[in-house]
Amino acid sequence: MVQPHSEYYIGIMSGTSLDGIDVVLVDFSTGYPKLLGTHFQAYNSRLKDTLLALHHSANDELHQMQIIANELANLYAAATAILLREANIPLDQVRAIGCHGQTIRHCPSDGYTLQLGNAALLTELSGITVVSDFRSGDIAAGGQGAPLVPVFHDSVFRHPSIHRVIVNIGGISNLTNLPPKRHTTGFDCGPGNMLMDAWISLQRGELYDQDGAWAASGQVIPALLQQLLDEPFLNAVPPKSSGRDLFNLAWLNSKLRGDEVPVNVQATLLAFSSRVISDAIHCFCDGAQEVYLCGGGAHNQALVQYLGLSLPNCRIQTTDPLGLEVDWLEAIAFAWFARQRLYGYSVNLTTVTGARHPCVLGAIYSV
Question: Cα separation of 302 and 2, whole Å?
Answer without folding.
Answer: 46
